[in-house]
Amino acid sequence: MPRNSLAYRPARFPTWVPRSTGCSPPSSRRADCPCPPKPSPRPSRACAGTRMSEAGATTRRRRPDQRRDEILTAARRRLLAHGLDNARIDDIAADAGIAKGTFYLYFRDRQSLVAALREQFVEELAAALDAAVDARPAHDWTGRLAHWVEQAIRLQVARTAEHDLVFHDLRHADARHRLQDNPVVHGLARLLEQGARAGAWQAPAPELLAVLLFHATHGASDSLRMQAEHTRDHDHVCATVVQWALNSLAVGG
Fold first, then answer.
1. Which of 158, 165, 207, 208 has a 20 to 30 Å separation from 88 between CA atoms?
2. Is Coiled coil one of the keywords UniProt gives this record (predicted)?
3. Do 154 and 93 belong to one domain?
4. Cα–Cα distance, 112 to 89 (Å, whole number)
5. How far apart, in whole angstroms, are the C-alpha atoms of residue 184 and residue 13?
6. Same-domain status, 139 and 100
7. Same-domain status, 131 and 69
8. Residues 147 and 196 in one domain
9. pLDDT higher than 60, residue 217
10. Are residues 126 and 229 located together in one domain of the fold?
11. Can you give the CATH number for the domain in which 71 is found?
């Protein structure tokens, strides 16, 4: 056929190569192919956004409690160092690393802040006393009760400044109401009830006995506070209250 013939000739195009590999289809790709492997597919923006929002939601749920604890810690230090009358909200907020407006998202005023510190004080005391009881052998009921009494007195004396700070303006009527929800009293009542069931002592009214014993430890700690520090005989006072408690429960009687 002549060279200048107009007869149809099929066009020659290069073999189609998928853009994903750059050289050959994945099924026929050679091991020595210089092209980089196809990267793993990225998650869609919607999926990534969902995960980020879930993580952010977890942070937001946890952050208010952490921020509140930070404010309480800063307030406790400021109040103990400068007193209630000389501690300003601005200073407490600055110590906590927050703006003054953020403070009011958690506490209405100074009184609500002190109330929160009071609640924290009681909860920490209750947790410390529960841990002291748990440190004694489970079958040693007398030892567990004696250890509770001793630690209750010593801890209240050791935290006198903080105790006076958070309880200084608590009215007697409010104190009676809060005593009903006091975790320290509830923990002691639970110990008395458990010991009575085990036959270690008699506790026909564990809640009432717990209130009486709690007031006994509080009075003993006040007695020690009024004494000069070098004349305080903690061991004698603790032993006296422990013996009174055991006699009240008819232990060994």
1. 158
2. yes
3. no
4. 12
5. 88
6. no
7. no
8. yes
9. yes
10. yes
11. 1.10.10.60
**Which residue, of 107, 126, 148, is where some domain finishes?**
107
Does residue 127 share a domain with residue 59?
Answer: no
Residue located via tokens 């009215």? 171
Tell me the C-alpha to C-alpha distance, in Å, between residue 30 and each of 18, 19, 25, 40: 14, 16, 10, 19
The two structure tokens encoding residue 190: 């639970």
Q: Are residues 138 and 246 in the same domain?
A: yes
DSSP SS3 for 108:
coil
pLDDT digits 0-9 by tens, 104-123: 999 999 999 999 999 999 99
CB 203 within 8 A of CB 196: yes
Task: Grade residue 16 by pLDDT with cuts at 50, 70 and 90.
Answer: very low
For residue 66, give its domain range.
53-107
- Sign (positive or negative) of CA dihedral 131, 136, 138, 143: negative
What pLDDT, in 10s, does the model give residues 41-100?
555 554 544 444 444 444 344 478 899 999 999 999 999 999 988 999 999 999 999 999
87 and 128 co-located in one domain? no
Confidence (pTM) = 0.70
Sign of CA dihedral 147, 218, 81, 74: positive
**Mean pLDDT across 205-210:** 95
Distances in Å between the Cα of 82 and the Cα atoms of 76, 88, 98, 104, 137 are 10, 10, 20, 21, 43
pLDDT of residue 178: 62
The span from the CA of 78 to the CA of 91, in Å, is 8
CB count in 10 Å sphere of residue 101: 8
